[in-house]
Amino acid sequence: MNATKATPALQSNDPSFANIWQELKWRGLVHVSTDEEALEEVLAGEPITYYCGFDPTAPSLHLGNLVQILVLRRLQLAGHKPLGLVGGSTGLIGDPRQTGERTLNPTEVVEEWVGRLRSQIERFLSFEGDNAARMVNNLDWTAGISALEFLRNIGKYFRVGTMIKKETVAKRLASDEGISYTEFSYQVLQGYDYLELYRQYDCVLQTGGSDQWGNLTTGTDLIRRVEGKSVHAFGTPLITNSDGSKFGKSEGNAIWLDGEMCSPYTFYQFWLNTADADVIDRLKVFTFLTRAEIEELAKEVEERPFARAAQRKLAWEVTAMVHGEENTQKVIDASAALFGQGDLGEIDLATLKSVTGELQVTEVEEQTSIVEAFVASGLVSSNSEARRTIRDGGAYINNQKISDGEQVIGDYFLHDSLAILRRGKRNLAAAAKK
C-alpha cells in the first residue's frame, strides 16, 4: 500500500504549561472541583495517589470512559500514582440514571465484565516505576461486610436530606417512577470506596465526569466526617457536539473501545467525520499533541478546512492509541483500497470484514453471475441496467473493471469469502459467499 504512514504522538504532558492543572484546564478537562487553589498546589507538589472508578454495566468501556482513562494517564505522566477502580460491587447495584431503574445484571455477568474492563484500562496506564498504577476492585472491601455493619459504621455518617438533593436523585424522586432504595444507596457505596482507598493507599483525589459530582463529593464529605481530613475531587465536563447532539455515538450506537463491539474501521471513521467546529476540542481532550501542534492544526481548519488535516490527525492518534498502529494503518490502507487506491487482495480478512461492515452486504451463491450479483447488491435495479453499466465500463469487482457480466461471482471472492462490488467511482456494496 502507498498510504502515508504516521506515528502517534509520544505520551507526555506539554512542558509549555506551568503545571498539570493548568494543562488540564487548557484542554477543557476541568468543569467542577473542590478547592481549586489547593488542588493545583497539591498536583504541583509531591506525588499523590488518586483514583477513578469504572462500573461494569457493559462488557466494554466507551468514549466517555476514555476521557477519564486519559485523565488518569495525564496525572500519572505528571508523577502521580493512579488507582484504576473497577466496581465489582457498585456494578451489582447500578449508578442511578436520569430516567428509569437499571436492570440488575447477574453476578457472574458482572464478574466477567469486571475482568474485561480491567484489561482495557490496564492498556492505557504504566505499571512500572515509582508511580506504577494499581488496579483495585471495590468488591474486595464490601463483600465481607454485613448490612448491620455497613449501616452502623458507614450509614450513620450520611444525612438523607443531603442525599436527596443530589441532582440525579432529585430528578428521579420527582419522576413518576421514583427511585429504589438500591439505587438511592449507590452514593453511599461510592463514598465508602473513597474512604477505603484513603485508608489503604492514602488516596487524596478522585476524578470523574461532572454528572458524577454528587457521588464524588459524597466521598470527600465522608472522609472529612470520619477521618477529619480534607481530600480533593474534580469533574470533567460532559462532552457534546457543537450542534447539540450527543457525543460518542455513531448512527445511534455507542463507540466502544472493544474492537469486537466497534471495529477499528468504524472507530477510525467516527473520528474522521468530526465536524470542523468540534475537532480542535477533540484533539485537546483525546490526544497528547502539544498546545503548539494543536494550534497549528487549528490554523489548518481555518485556512484549509477542505484538507481535513485536523480530522485525519485526530483519527490516527486516537485509533492508534486504542487499537494500535498496525491495525490503524490496515484500516487506512483498506479504506484507500476500497476506492481503487490499492490492492484489496492484500487486505486480511478481519480488516476486510470490518470495512465492509459499513456497506450493504448480500449473501450470494458462488455460481451467481456478476449481473445477478450487482442486482442483488442493490447497486443496480435490473439485469439490463447491470449489463449497461458493465458495457459502459462502470462496473468493478475488487477494483477490477468487469467486461463479462456472465462470469460467476465465485471467481472473485477474496479469502474465499467476500467480493467488493463498485458502480462508478463511489457506489459500493459487498457480496458474501453463502
TrEMBL record:
Principal subcellular localisation of the protein: cytoplasm
Location in the cell: Cytoplasm
A matching Pfam family: SYY_C-terminal
Reaction it catalyzes: tRNA(Tyr) + L-tyrosine + ATP = L-tyrosyl-tRNA(Tyr) + AMP + diphosphate + H(+)
InterPro entries on file: aa-tRNA-synth_I_CS (IPR001412), aa-tRNA-synth_Ic (IPR002305), Rossmann-like_a/b/a_fold (IPR014729), S4_RNA-bd_sf (IPR036986), SYY-like_C (IPR054608), Tyr-tRNA-ligase (IPR002307), Tyr-tRNA-ligase_bac-type (IPR024088), Tyr-tRNA-ligase_bac_1 (IPR024107)
PROSITE patterns in UniProt: AA_TRNA_LIGASE_I, S4
Gene Ontology molecular function: tyrosine-tRNA ligase activity
Keyword Nucleotide-binding set for record: yes
Record-listed L-tyrosine binding positions: 51, 186, 190
UniProt EC number: 6.1.1.1
Binding sites annotated in the UniProt record for ATP: 249
Motif interval(s): 'KMSKS' region: 246-250
Biological function: Catalyzes the attachment of tyrosine to tRNA(Tyr) in a two-step reaction: tyrosine is first activated by ATP to form Tyr-AMP and then transferred to the acceptor end of tRNA(Tyr).
PANTHER family reported in the protein's UniProt record: TYROSINE--TRNA LIGASE, MITOCHONDRIAL (PTHR11766:SF0), TYROSYL-TRNA SYNTHETASE (PTHR11766)
Annotated protein name in UniProt: Tyrosine--tRNA ligase
Primary gene name: tyrS
